[in-house]
């Protein structure tokens, strides 16, 4: 097959269009304070703002002359455009045209307003008026037994589905993460059986041995050999959020939440949290952040090298990759669900057009 995918325009790709129907993370809640903030979701510039205590997400383009509202200010509970002072309410309705305010009610200017929500310290936006699934859950976020650490958001030159698949790909641990969370001496992968629970793809990995990291072992209070036994429980909220709960042999837990934002079809920003119920003193935070940063730096060049950037699940692209029975069970289950979502969206679009 020719490599047209190397320079492909994904804007009309069925999967990329389908992603408009879902909640996506766009910022940490703490980043949206008393000033408007620009984010980009699926190539759409969006401005986030808190207007009289209400979080809003509007298209970042004034209806007058197209200036970015994110460069403006919040004035009297309204979002003011920096160019001519037009002001917008939480619904995107223009409520003031300073140059000729009597025309405000006549012209009735508006900018698109998008569904927005806050959960797990993250701002979520959907570009469709009716999100298909609920916002992902992070039960440990409000659990006082856990120490929470917010990881710095990071950008990769890849698609959000590729980022998600990387997180739940077990067979790369032995080679990309040899010595940290995997070992070349143990490349075999157990077969897991994913299942669906509402809008979540779930799967469990029974207790496995992985390399011990000295300080982590000490904080866990585990003594003994150079390997630690840990069971892993995964919840993948479609399409790009994964909650991983790791249970160690002494019953302690280490939890990761990773939510991937498709800035574009080929650029992804990931937001993430760590939650742990051991070594909960703040002075240990940097150790855990550094460990995860090392894992991410090992993954990044490999994932950014993948072609095509968007997972090949439609048309002739499917033939570009060869899945391995058993080892790729999770990825195959994930892709089957993506294909179903694409078909559902295509059917919905056909009904709307009829």
Automatic annotation (TrEMBL):
Domain named Rieske: residues: 23-125
Keyword field:
2Fe-2S, Dioxygenase, Iron, Iron-sulfur, Metal-binding, Oxidoreductase
- Which Pfam families does its entry note? Rieske (PF00355), VanA_C (PF19112)
What InterPro entries would the database entry show? Answer: Cholesterol_7-desaturase (IPR050584), Rieske_2Fe-2S (IPR017941), Rieske_2Fe-2S_sf (IPR036922), VanA_C_cat (IPR044043)
Reply yes or no: does the keyword Iron apply.
yes
Taxonomy, superkingdom = Bacteria
GO MF annotation terms: 2 iron, 2 sulfur cluster binding; dioxygenase activity; metal ion binding
Keyword Cell membrane listed: no
Name-wise, this protein is: Aromatic ring-hydroxylating dioxygenase subunit alpha
Q: Which organism is it from?
A: Paraburkholderia pallida
The root-end lineage is: Bacteria, Pseudomonadati, Pseudomonadota, Betaproteobacteria, Burkholderiales
